Amino acid sequence: MTKSSVTSTDVAKLANVSQSAVSRTFTPGASVSGKTRERVLAAAKELGYRPNVLARSLISGRSRIIGLVIAYLENHFYPIVIEKLSRSLQARGYHVLLFMTEPGQQDEVIQEILQYQVDGVVLASVTLSSHIAQECAGLGVPVVLFNRYVPDTQASSVVSDNVSGGRMLAELLIKEGHNNIAFIAGQENSSTNVEREQGFNEALAAAGLQVSQRAVGYYTFEGATIAAREILDQAVPDAIFVANDHMAFAVMDVIRGEYGLRIPEDISVVGYDDVPEAGWPSYNLTTVEQPVEKMIADTVEILLEQMEHKQVSPTRRVTEAGLMLRGSTKSSLA
Question: What is the 3-state secondary structure (H, E, C) of 57-107?
């Protein structure tokens, strides 16, 4: 008998267990006693047996694959998301199939993903059109938007409370005595940018203030560099809210490296996400922490529930964010 011809029936006979016990042994999360598992694995090793995942998916109708679509990895928030999401799904017997996309091309990418018979789809840093969301729902494939929200769609969403986060940053800067505050936006129409700016502006208005200068960084390092120069060439504000940490690092580099200004003595800078680099001494950035662990747990829970019941129903989860005080704001000088 060649190793390629060994079947689960052969393993069951050698281990003296049922074929279903063999199947459960190789199905993550399935119930099987420790003693039975040991016998099955020992028999499988002796015979050189490996389960055929593709054949099993044809029988069960489930690929146990989740498609993940992402537009860019420069913002280190998303590599963290990929790692944690992959590990969480893998622990439950699912695997992530990663697809990169360019902004505006995600619908075509999702059409390609569906050809792989995925059980679910997660989109991070991108959204999808309503008709593609409807098509996925019709196929029984749940879609979760991670860190994005689109109203009136069949896709679920998992976000932090961006409005509250923006409000917290404005209240901090106001408390520190700032009244000449600039804002550097990300992608104009993205839900994260819209909501963070909304909360920020609401808090400023409540204090009788408004943003003194505004530029757009498009959630890129290069874009934020240009936006920072645009603002500083006009007039030097006493604080800048940058819509995410990735852009904030570029802004801080420009402030210190090109204009010779001090942070926070001359300008306070705040960001959003709390990526690992925010805690580095070179940046020491005050920011809003996105609760990644909770957002991942919510994403996985939505996927598993809808895949289990084979019924897609739009769900929105909003998780509270937290303020991380560091050395880029004047509170650190007290």
Answer: HHHHCCCCEEEEEECCCCCCHHHHHHHHHHHHHHCCCCEEEEEECCCCCHH
